[in-house]
Amino acid sequence: MSKDKPGTPAGGDAGHPAGAPGDRKEGQKTDQKTGQKSGYTHFGYEEVRVGEKQQRVREVFSSVASRYDVMNDLMSMGIHRLWKRFVIDLAGVRPGEKVLDVAGGTGDLSREFRRLAGPQGLVVLSDINEAMLRQGHARLADKGVLDVPLAQANAEKLPFAEGTFDCITIGFGLRNVTDKDAALASMTRALKPGGRLLVLEFSKPLNAGLAKVYDQYSFKLLPLMGKLVARDADSYRYLAESIRMHPDQATLKGMMENAGLSRVQVYNLTGGIVAVHRGYRLD
Ligand SMILES: C[S@@+](CC[C@H](N)C(=O)[O-])C[C@H]1O[C@@H](n2cnc3c(N)ncnc32)[C@H](O)[C@@H]1O
């Protein structure tokens, strides 16, 4: 696992193979920076109205919730555990700290943070999706963790007072959020001055050879596994497409800085397939 400056230029979404959206009809208004048609956003490669994305994402996670953990292990060959371990170590949660796990789903990060924050600390598991939160609650309870409050909340509008948390994480959640800038601003606001935000997300492979293999894997094997194991090829196709549409390392770093975070560092994992961004709210 290397900590390095991202090898990709700022100012664009992660590359995606042919067949992805890109062409614009003449006369359509587009955002100069993102090339996005106004009033529209992406749901995977599909262009959908901004108001529609949240519902479509909800359908995906409601559909996969009961098989989420097993599919995660299968699709990543267990490697997601190492990526999460890296985030847990980098977060450096200490006894007595307040931690918020945004888009926390089935609670992998929350469980470890709960142990590290100790009896004087607080860990809140938050997610927009009730079905995922229910799975998270059941899984934590199975492991004997009963003191993690749940909050059903949209990352774009977190219902916490300004300056509440020492540490906030969002693991594999940001790419599903419609307004990522709003989510970054909302999470920054909920941090105490001196607090840190860690974003764990799929990113852009640093090496063209790896990118090719990874494309084959995600566009051929993932939907097939989704079909055979979860009987839901579409949700897993969305997964592959949403990863390609997510901002690359440098773009996300810039977005975090725009949200008011400082000292943003990027840690590429597994050749940039995944990246962790950590930034601090300094004032
Ligand atoms: C791929 S799962 C990640 C779950 C968990 N953090 C993990 O790493 O295993 C993505 C999660 O993001 C949640 N999500 C999607 N849009 C969201 C939003 N706008 N606000 C909060 N959570 C959201 C989904 O409900 C889902 O539980």
Mind explaining what this structure looks like?
By secondary structure, the chain is α/β, with parallel strands linked by helices. It has a domain at 63-205 and 248-280: Rossmann fold (3-Layer(aba) Sandwich), CATH 3.40.50. 41% of the residues lie in helices and 20% in strands. The protein has nine helices and ten strands. The chain has helices spanning 50-64, 68-76, 79-91, 108-117, 130-142, 180-190, 208-230, 233-245, 249-258, and strands at 2-3, 40-43, 46-49, 98-102, 122-127, 150-152, 165-171, 191-202, 262-269, 274-280. It has an eight-stranded mixed beta sheet with strand order 1-9-10-8-7-4-5-6, sandwiched between helices. Strands 2-3 form a two-stranded antiparallel ribbon. Helix 5 (130-142) links the parallel strand 5 (122-127) and strand 6 (150-152). Helix 3 (79-91) runs parallel beside helix 4 (108-117) and helix 7 packs antiparallel against helix 8 (233-245). The longest helix has 23 residues, at 208-230. Residues 1-27 have low confidence and may be disordered. S-adenosylmethionine binds at residues 57, 61, 103-106, 108, 127-129, 132, 154-156, 171-173, 176-177.
